[in-house]
Amino acid sequence: MFTFKVNGTSVTADKEQNLLTYLRDELRVTSVKDGCSEGACGTCTVLIDGKKIKACIPKLSSLVGKSIVTVEGLSPREKEVYVHCFAQAGAVQCGYCIPGMVISAKSLLDGNLNPTRLEVKKAIRGNLCRCTGYVKIEEAILQAADFFREDLPIPQRETQALLNTRFKRVDAEEKILGTGQFVDDLILPDMIYAKALRSKYPRAVVNRIDLSKALAHPDCIRILTEKDVPNKKIGHLVTDWDVMIAEGGTTRYIGDALALVATQHKETLDEVLALIEVEYTELVPITCPTDALKASAPLIHEQGNIMRKEVLKRGNADAAIKKSKYVVTRKYSTPFNDHAFMEPECAIALPEGEDGLLLYTGSQSVYDERHEISHMLAIPEEKIHCHSMLVGGGFGGKEDMSVQHHAALMAWYTKKPVKVKFSRQESLNYHTKRHAMEMEFTTACDEQGILTAMKAILLADTGAYASLGGPVLQRACTHAAGPYNYQNIDILGMSVYTNNVIGGAYRGFGVTQSCFATENNINLLAEMAGLSPWEMRYKNAIRPGQVLPNGQIADPNCAMVECLEAVKAVYEANPYAGIACAFKNSGTGVGLKDIGRCLLSIEKGLVHIRTSAACMGQGIATMCTHMVCQETGLDPALIVHERPDTNRTPNSGTSTASRQTVVTGEATRRAAQKLKVALADGKSVVDLNGQEFYDEFSAITDPMGAPKDFPVSHVSYSYGAQVVVLDSQGKVEKVVAAYDVGTPVNIQSVEGQIEGGIIMGLGFALTEDFPVQGGYPLLKFGTLGLMRATEAPPIEVHLVQAPGEKLPYAFGAKGVGELCLIPTSPACSHAYYRYDGKFRTSLPLRETYYKK
Ligand code: FES
C-alpha cells in the first residue's frame, strides 16, 4: 500500500506501477499524457514535492508521503492565467504537449517571476513539442510571468473573430487544462485491449502460426488471423496493404501483422503475444530501390516492384541544356523521416446499434476510415460510425489507418469495446515515414543567369506498401523545377517497393525532397553566372501572368518576388546566410475530386459548424469560426465547432495537401453567406433555431497531362523565401521567413504553423535521422534527434501578399501548413556552403555544429 497526495487529496494505491499509469488509468487524471513512456517527451510532466518529473518514470513505492500536482490541481488563478497567456500567444496547436508544458512553466515561475527567454527555454527543455517550434510557448510563459508578477487582470474575451487579426483559438482552453479528450483518454465500460503480433523479419515466408498456447492464457479473449478478415487488403488509395499475413504468405516489412490478440487487461497483451509460435523461412530483404529495380529482384507485390512512375515533360530540356551557358548536375539523397507527432496512434471500436460499429479515432479523415473499414469488413459504409476525438498531431502520418482497422476487426468479432494503442516504439517502427529519395538533378541557365531547363530523375523508397506514395512522388515531380519562370523540364520519377518501413504522406508531400535538390543546384549556377544566390532567384522568380514550369499561369496573387524582397536585407547582411525558395499547392488538384462541405445548424441559439475537416493541430475550428464571423459579423461566443463525425458532419475530404483553409474555408464561408441572408431583417440566431444552412465548394482543376497549353493543376499556390543565418560557430543564429499565404486567417495560427514548420524543417536538415538497416529501424524516440526548445533559434516571420487580385475563395486565404518547412533544408545547406565551402548533397547535413 502506497499513500501519497495527488492534487491535494490523499490517495492509497495497492499495487506497484508507474505513476503515469496510475494517474491515467486509476485516478483518471488525463491531462497527464502518454507520449512515449520512455522519459523522452515530457507530455507526462508533473510536480512531485514541487520538482518537475516525468510521471512515466517513478514507481508508486517511491512516492510514499509525497505530493503530486498536475494541471488539474492548479489554483483557479493559475488556470485562468495559463489559459489566457497560452491562448493569447498562440502557444497551442494539437495541445498534446501543453499540460506538461504548463507544469514545467509552473515549476519555473513558482521560483522566478522574472525569467529570461533562456531560462524559459531551459525550463521546458524536457518537454518536446512537434507543432509550435516553441516560440509561442516561450512567449506564453513570459506573459504568464508578467500576469503573476504584476497581478494583472485577465482581459475580457474577444467579441469579434475577423480575418487577419489575433484571436484566441477556440479549442485552446480544453487543451491547456487537459479537459479535452484524445482517444486514449477514454476508458469505456467492459473495454478490452488488442495488439498485433508483428513479423520478426522484414521478408520471410510464414510457414505456420500456432495459437494454441496463447489461446490457453487465462486473460486471452480472442485471437484473430488473416482467415477472419473478410477483405484481406486495405489501402488509402491503392488496396495493397494486408490486414494480416496468412500462413504461407510472405511478409513485406517488420510491421506486418500475423495475428491480433485481445485480452481483458492491457498488461497481459505482451505475455499472450509471446506465446504465439510462428515458423518462418527467412528471406533476404530488398532494402533499397536500386536493388528492387534489378531484373533479378524478387517481386514484393505481384504487379512488380515499381509502385508508380511519373514522366513530366514540357518544352525540350535536352536541346535547351545543350544551348545553355552553364549546366550543373548533382546527385542528392534524403532519408526516411518520422512525423513524431506527440500523440501515438490509438483507436477504440465498439458495437453500435444492431450490427454496426462506432470508432473513436484521431486521424486525418473520418470518412476515409469509414470507407476502408467497411471495405475490410465487407459491410455497408452506413454501418460504420467514425467519430474524431482530439488529434495530437498528424503531419500526414495519420492519413493511413494504423490501429483503427484492428480495433474495428476485434470489436466486430468480440462485440465489445476494444482499444488498440501503439507504444512509441511501435509508432516509430510501423507507421509511414517521409519517403527516402535518391535524386539526380541537372539545371541550366544562360550567361545572364536566366534559368533555361532542368532534368531530374527521382527514385523514392515507398517501402512495403503504396500508402500515398503515388501522389507524393507526383508532387515531388510537379514541384521539382521550383517557383521559377522557365519552360523546359524533363522529369522521371519512380516510387519503388522495398522491404523497408513504409513511405507515406508527410508535410511537404515529396516537395521537401525535390526542393532540396533544385535549390542547391541553383546556388551552383549562381556561382557560375557570377550572381548572388538571392539575385539569381530574384531574376528567375515566377511573377503573376508568367508560366510556371508545369504550364500553369501564375495567379495575380503570386507574391514570390515580394517574399524575396522581404528577406533580401538579412541575406545580404550576413556572410553565413543561406537562402531558398519554395512553392506548394493548396488543394489536391490535378483533376481530382476536391470538395469542401459545411453545414451550419442552429441549435439552442448557437451556430454549430459541422464539417469533417480534421484538425490535427493546425486550427480548423478556429479557421471555420473566422469564416463564419467574418461573413456574418456574429460574436464568436455564438459559434460551436463540432468534431468530425460521419453521422453529423458532411464529408470535407482528408486534411492533406494544405487544402482545408481554401476548400472547407470557402464551403464554410458560403454556408455563412446563406446564414447572413437569413439573419437579415433584424433576426437573431435564436430566431433561426432548427434551421440549417449548407454549402460546398468544389475546387476544379485539370488532370495531369491535360491537352492544354496552360493547365490549371492546382486551385492555388503559396510561395515562400527563407534565410537561415549561422553564427561564427556554425550554429543557426536565426531564421527569417517571408511567406505569401494570401490573406492570413488567424495571425497566431499562421505564425505558429510557420514557426513549427521551420523547427521541423531544421530538424530534417540538421538533427533528425531515421536509420534503417536490413529493413529494421535502428532508433528509439529519444535518439530521433527532435529539436528541443534550447536548440530552437529565433524565427522572424514576414507575411507578404501580392498587390494583385486575391484568390477568389475563402477571402483570399491560401494554405500554409506544408510550405513552411519546404525551403528550410536547402537554406541550411546553402548557409553551410557559405560557412565552410563544403557542398553537401545529403540530409541530415553532416560536419556541422549539429552532426559529425
Ligand atoms: Fe505541442 Fe502539438 S502543440 S505537440
Automatic annotation (TrEMBL):
InterPro entries: 2Fe-2S-bd (IPR002888), 2Fe-2S-bd_dom_sf (IPR036884), 2Fe-2S_ferredoxin-like_sf (IPR036010), 2Fe-2S_ferredoxin-type (IPR001041), 2Fe2S_fd_BS (IPR006058), Ald_Oxase/Xan_DH_a/b (IPR000674), Ald_Oxase/Xan_DH_a/b_sf (IPR036856), Ald_Oxase/xanthine_DH-like (IPR016208)
Sequence ranges assigned to domain 2Fe-2S ferredoxin-type in this UniProt record: 1-74
Coiled coil regions, renumbered to chain: none
GO molecular function, one term: iron ion binding
One family name in Pfam for this protein: MoCoBD_1
Protein origin, superkingdom: Bacteria
Keyword Oxidoreductase appears in the UniProt entry: yes
Keywords: Iron, Metal-binding, Oxidoreductase
Ligase in keyword set: no
Family membership noted in the UniProt record: Belongs to the xanthine dehydrogenase family.
NCBIfam families per the UniProt record, alphabetical: Se_dep_XDH
Protein name per UniProt: Selenium-dependent xanthine dehydrogenase
Organism: Propionispira arboris
